[in-house]
Amino acid sequence: MKKFVASLFFVCFILLLAACGGTESTSDDGAGEPADTEEPAENGEDTTTESESETSFPEQNITLIVPFDAGGGTDATARALASAAEKHLGVSVGVVNRTGGGGAVGMSEGANAAPDGYTVTMVTVELATLPHLGLAPITYENFAGIGQMNFDPAAVTVPADAPYDTLEEFIEYAKENPGLQMGNSGTGSIWHLAGASIEQATGTEFNHVPYDGAAPAVTALLGGHIDVVPVSPAEVLTHVEAGTLKTLAVMSNERSPAMPDVPTFAELGIDAVAVGPWRGLTVPKDTPPEVIEVLTEAFSKGAQEEEFIEFMDNNGLGIVILDGPEFEAMMQESHDFYGELIPELGLNE
């Protein structure tokens, strides 16, 4: 009995000590929650570590993949934007051209790159068309958007000495001479779709000649190897101004600021689908959100730099800026649109 009483007294003593110790370690707000065991920072300084509040990205140079040849509108846009964004990133942005497959080679490489933000890809409208043509397994779903920077209409352009000066005359000539050579930037490319849309709307028939990009197609036009190209104003503007080429019309509802005197298909009463390229930046889909945020902010600021705006204006390239989520939504809409158009044109057979 004496042992039991002694044991009971000892237990009560231990519990009393524990209660006293707990009172000293609780916060003084009366809530009864344990107080922070870390000593408070002096002068109220934030003790959050760098990894908790911000990313150290980027710590090395960034590669920007362009899926078409150097010299075309996509390449020019990418290089101008890379230059404008470098000061906002604090590292160099090196542009590399990965051509082939109407853009599929370069975009596939970008989609399969390490999702660390150090490989950025300039994707184009072909990302929305190639899957429906069975020419590429990737879609917008393989990427996370950084932002859209550009949109341009198709400009139907011919040699300056061609025997037609208006779109109406060209269509009449094409009907009388079926099989005119129409260059494009690759089978299933946006310029191929533009040409097919013209055929559908006007009852004409062309022989479509694919090239690895618009620049080689324009070169072929200048050399007399083909008869016409439907490419962006930027890709023919200098030649039009030099008097070696002439643009008959643009495939849009509004005139191009780069060619304000050139009529639109809509003005001429031709019900052609208004197709044209868009361009934007992406990274692989599993790239960390904080890295995407850094890239989005830097390239968005770059797109608003005077040097970039002046370059785009001087070269006839249209500026359209959408942030990452907006660009992803636009890519999905474009994917769905061409998913309907391509079967209608019979290009997926």
TrEMBL record:
The keyword Membrane does not apply. Residues 25-60 are annotated as: Disordered. SUPFAM superfamilies: Periplasmic binding protein-like II. The keyword Signal applies. Gene3D superfamilies: Bordetella uptake gene, domain 1 (3.40.190.150), Periplasmic binding protein-like II (3.40.190.10). Keywords: Signal. Residues 1-18 form the signal peptide. InterPro entries: BUG (IPR005064), Bug_dom1 (IPR042100). Residues 26-53 have a biased composition (Acidic residues). Belongs to the UPF0065 (bug) family. This is Tripartite tricarboxylate transporter substrate binding protein. It comes from Halalkalibacter oceani. The lineage of its organism: Bacteria, Bacillati, Bacillota, Bacilli, Bacillales.
